[in-house]
Fold these 3 entries.
Entry 1:
Amino acid sequence: MSATSLAALARTSDPQTVLRRFLALDAVVTGANGIAYLAVSGPLGRLLGVDSGLLLGLGAFLTVYAAAVGLLASRARPAALPVRAVIEANLGWAALSMVALAVWLSPTAAGAVWTVLQALTVAGFAVLQYAALKARQGISD
């Protein structure tokens, strides 16, 4: 992904702002997902065919993770090491989601679609964050 493409997606040409916006978007989406899992784990569990206890645990984890990513996004210049940790965690989440779908979970059709979509979304965040970090380092490091 080119710096121009990233700038267009983030609606700014400042690499620092691009990175912070992609981190913030990740935090918002992840936080909303976590809160939904916490607030309505029973109905969501039935819809997705996933144990509500699992959703509660995931909801707690995702809410804390989202807060940490949001804190990172709020920094004027997020440090590269924590940004890389977020990228790697996102890639790990996406891979683990697909493995869980293949070998462990027995979701409904809606749950299978949801698992794939959220894995692709999280992997997309990782790609955008990596490209933004690379663009920032190429210009200012």
Entry 2:
Amino acid sequence: MKVIGITGNCNDQAESHVAIRLMADSSILLSNKPFFVPDFAPQFVMHPAIALRVNRLGKNVASRFAHRYYDSVAACVAVEARGDNVDDRGDARFTAFDGAVMLGDYMPWSDMPESIETAVAINDAIVATTSTAGMSHDFDHMIELVSTYFTLKMGDIIVNIDNSKSHVLTIGQNLTATIGGKPSLKIRIK
């Protein structure tokens, strides 16, 4: 299983191109598990994201067939290290460490509205949202792009990360997220 992070795909982002990051499966932190703040950087920020689960094997998938390659979505939060000693060019040590992808419970794609929104709250106050309506390229085009370079396999996760929105994480916070208005993610920051 692969975790494929996509950045630069939101209309309001300053990035001029889409970037693809591969992450280890140990980067995934499932809902209801605590996130322990690592000590290798002075600050960690979260970005709202939407995760798509791949449900079949595919290579070089045309966008018109891409809807056959996923079946569910989840609210997701991507965590990134920040600080003076941290390289800000997407170094995997600072963007793909253990627990860097907080993944909520999946919801069937068929139960989602046309425009899917994820809202992330810290201590019950919404701090960030992202939506498929704000994506420059929809998930069908993301499947086409990613499958050009990597063979998609059942269980792979494609995470569309909205890097334009962030919030600093601190010990003691309760992080929750919804997708399509339904609860999906609950994490305690320790």
Entry 3:
Amino acid sequence: MTDERDIVGQLKKFTTCDISDALCSLKYPNGGFLSGLTMWSPERQSGSTKIAGPAYTVQYVPLSDPAPKHSTHYIDHVPSGSVVFVSSPRDVPNAVYGGLMSARAHYLGAAGSIIDGRFRDLEEQRGLNFPIFARDIGTAPPYESVKVAAVNVPVKLQSMHQNIEIRPGDYLMGDLNGVVLLPRDLAGKALELMRKRVEADGKVRAEISKGMSFAEASKRFR
């Protein structure tokens, strides 16, 4: 049986685009792309930062939601190697994640955090060299607007254009191209397709660089 760390190590050899290509071949919606989430730390859409790991999900809800507030702070239970995925209700102007959260996540060995909403303390995140992907940035804390209702539960991407669910343990990967979700049960099939596609694309690239048409190279090698 393939070890989870081995799967993560293999994923890091590829890009988010490679994962999406494989998932499109497997008919997974949008190739697993999670729209609107981009890199903010350690740099803004620059550098070689790449994160990959199983999702540790955090669900924020409006204060008016009848669900009780989660009894403990989620950040103290982040598994080593995981990617923290924080889900904020759509259109909340307050930040739902900050520098202290990254300090704790970094200590516990998290691979990085993805904030489906706003975060703050950008200079602290960068000072830690901690990877942050997010929808946007803000200054105000969350307490007047939202509360954590659940941890490690399925959450929906806060997008009007997609209906994608992020489940605990599904693989998340982020790089300069954006963020993708790789369902756990498709990881083996996707990795096999990714290897074949990257090898084929390498041959196509080599030939078109020498003058062969893209159509011909694609027909020959893909």
